[in-house]
Design a protein that fits this description.
heterodimer; A: 182 residues; mainly alpha; elongated; B: 351 residues; alpha+beta; 5-stranded antiparallel beta sheet; two-stranded antiparallel sheet; 12 helices; globular
Chain lengths: 182, 351
């Protein structure tokens, strides 16, 4: 059993005390730090309160995207137009051929960082799909199909809006992407 | 944190700095009357340096800035001696910069390489500049002036023996940047599909190459000083290099640098028109909005990568900075801008 007020309520109250009571007492050159602390608390509160389904839904959208139809689900990459080369639509091109200057690296070459950022909190399968999606977009995988491209854009918007709802909802409002009430 | 060195080593450092300043100016002695960290400069350490010179080329009380590298840096920035050479070139081209005076790479002087320039009055605080209603009437003229300043920077062109350390720029410039961004993302633990999608657009919409010029590569609100409404200095030259002039124009106008005024597309201070007008009148070259658009998309990708690198400095480099720790989350703002620029239909969920 936990006592009341609960964690989120305490965090919100502590943030108010910081901004309303403590900030005016700080020398001007340290006020920015207090605002940054308040911003950290707000992000942490939003992330703690976030529906884990938000991430799950994007994972589900990606799963649907990749299972939509076996024919369409095979990426049909094209090389940059100015290179004027044709690739078989059925095969992924060799990445080394696309980026000779940068040999392919393992995506997890920063294992220390991975542990510290707490990546992998979501389902590993979602993580893997998202990685695959990023790889496919790099090579223009879905550009030859307008419905697929539209589905790609819909997922990208959704990912971005979900990310900013946690990181900086005011930026979404300022850009007219969501209303002031979210 | 800077400025917390123990008193004996701090006294030694000031003594060696005073000897250096005396030797550089031919003064018979120099007394350091103030040395304290200045606010700002997330990548470099800036110190306010007050010194009294007895004799020599710079006699009397001088107010200076000493600029040294911070503990960890963002890759690809110039070292202080190179930045000093760039500042001298810009100063000679008539760009409004604090006059560069001395530089040294000798660790015996200050513990690390540094440069010294004149301290000019003013604030670079972008939120204040974009928010202060008292400045509003002067901002279109400021935008025009900044356009002219940028055109002067771009008048510096290769070959320049004094700038021979700058990497040559060829027609593959944008592709090289894209390759570097991708290599960074390959080593990053989180996939970034929007950045990949944006870079794919860039790769398939490359503008025709133009002759390279000296680019500032971080020319934006927040990197110039205003004293009242008067421009007193263009700052932070550590990313300068040969490049496409429209890259600086796109960077200045990109949404990441509009601060409190997203609606004022030229650096959060004015419409594009006065900024472009100033640039065109000084350079004699018409600004091509389509080229600028390309570089504006690239600017959002680049700012996203820099934001992620800034939080790496906290996560991996161990720099104890809330500001750096939080900056990584700004990558999402860049991703939204990439979508808004390239998918004019807007969020399909609203359709």
């Amino acid at each position: 059993m936990r006592d009341l007020p609960d964690g989120p309520a305490l965090l919100a109250f502590a943030r108010d005390v910081l901004l309303d009571d403590l900030l005016p007492l700080l020398p001007p050159e340290r006020r920015l730090d207090a605002r940054l602390v308040a911003n950290c608390m707000a992000i942490a509160a939003r992330e703690a309160a976030a529906d884990p389904q938000g991430q799950g839904e994007i994972g589900a959208a990606l799963a649907t995207f990749y299972s939509a139809s076996t024919k369409d689900a095979v990426p049909s990459p094209t090389l940059p137009r100015e290179r004027r080369r044709e690739e078989p639509a059925s095969a992924l091109p060799d990445r080394a051929a696309l980026e000779p200057a940068f040999p392919a690296r393992e995506p997890h070459s920063l294992p220390r960082m991975r542990g510290r950022v707490g990546v992998g909190a979501g389902a590993p399968a979602d993580d893997e799909l998202s990685r695959r999606f990023a790889r496919d977009l790099r090579i223009g995988a879905f550009e030859n199909s307008e419905p697929r491209s539209a589905a790609v854009r819909a997922i990208l918007w959704r990912m971005t809006i979900e990310r900013l709802r946690l990181a900086n909802p005011r930026f979404l409002v300022a850009n007219g992407v969501i209303g002031p009430k979210g | 944190m800077a400025g917390t060195a123990s008193p004996p080593s701090e006294a030694l450092r000031q003594a060696s700095l005073a000897r250096f300043l005396a030797a550089e100016t031919g003064a018979h002695s120099v007394e350091i009357t103030g040395l304290a960290p200045l606010a700002g400069g997330s990548i470099q350490e800036n110190w306010g340096l007050d010194a009294r010179f007895f004799g020599g080329a710079l006699p009397g009380e001088q107010h200076l800035v000493l600029r040294a590298a911070a503990a960890t840096g963002v890759p690809s920035s110039l070292d202080r001696l190179q930045e000093f050479a760039v500042l001298k070139a810009a100063f000679a081209a008539g760009v409004t910069v604090p006059e560069p005076l001395f530089a040294s790479a000798d660790p015996a002087v200050f513990g690390k390489p540094f440069l010294v320039m004149r301290r000019v009055p003013g604030t670079a605080a972008a939120h204040r500049i974009t928010r202060d209603p008292a400045l509003d009437p002067d901002l279109p003229a400021l935008a025009e002036r900044l356009g002219r300043e940028l055109a002067r920077i771009h008048r510096v062109r290769p070959p320049r023996p004094d700038l021979s350390f700058l990497a040559p720029y060829d027609d593959a410039g944008p592709q090289r940047q894209i390759a570097a961004f991708r290599a960074y993302l390959d080593a990053h633990p989180m996939p970034r599909p929007v950045l990949e999608w944006g870079m794919r657009w860039l790769e398939t919409n490359l503008p025709p190459p133009v002759a390279p010029v000296l680019c500032h590569h971080d020319f934006r609100t927040g990197n110039y000083l205003l004293n009242g409404a008067r421009l007193t200095g263009i700052l932070d030259w550590e990313f300068a290099g040969w490049g496409d002039p429209d890259e600086d124009i796109g960077w200045f106008c990109s949404k990441g640098w509009r601060f409190a005024r997203l609606d004022r597309e030229a650096g959060g201070i004015a419409d594009r028109a006065p900024f472009y007008r100033g640039y065109e009148s000084e350079s004699g070259r018409a600004v091509d909005p389509q080229r600028v658009f390309f570089w504006e998309v690239l600017a959002s990708v680049r700012w996203a990568i820099i934001a992620l690198q800034q939080s790496d400095r906290h996560m991996l480099g161990g720099e104890r900075s809330l500001d750096l720790a939080l900056t990584g989350r700004r990558a999402g703002e860049c991703e939204l801008e990439i979508l808004m620029l390239l998918d004019r239909g807007g969020n399909p969920a609203d359709a």
